[in-house]
Amino acid sequence: MFPEREQGPGAIYIEAADKVTLKKIREITFVNAKEILGIIYSSKSGNTQLRWRQTRRKSGKVNGDASPNALVNLVESGVITQEWVEDYLKYSQVQNIQNNKVEKSLKENIQGTGQEFSKNESFLLESKNERII
User: Fold this and answer.
1) To which H or E segment does residue 108 belong?
2) For an engineered disulfide with 66, which of 1, 13, 126, 132 has Cβ 3.0 to 4.6 Å away?
3) Closest CA to 46 of 30, 25, 67
4) What is the pLDDT of residues 3-18, one digit of tens each?
C-alpha cells in the first residue's frame, strides 16, 4: 500500500504496472500497487523534487534535487548512507571551488571587454552531474 497526493506542492505519484485505489482520506489517496516502475515526489516547500526509476526488480535510481532535510530522511530510512552524503559533500565542495575559479576567470575576461557579468550567467557553469541525487 502506498500514499499518493494530487499534483502541486507535496505531490507523490506512484507509477506501476498494476495499481488499485483503496481509499481517499482528505488529499491523500492510498493505492495498492504491484510492479512499481517509478515514484515521483515533490515536497510542499518545493525544495525537494525526486524521481525514482526502477532499474531491476526492486532496485532503482533516484534523480533530482533534495533539501538537507530530505537527505536526513533518506539516510534515516536507509535509502542512502551517511558515508554517501559525506562523500558527496566533499565532491561538491571541490566542484564549487573549481566553478568559482572559472567564474572569477570569466569575470576578469569580461571586465576587460567592458561587458557586465551577472550572477545568473554563473549558473551556466554548473554541471548536471552535481545534483544531490
Assistant:
1) helix 82-111
2) 132
3) 67
4) 888 877 888 888 889 9
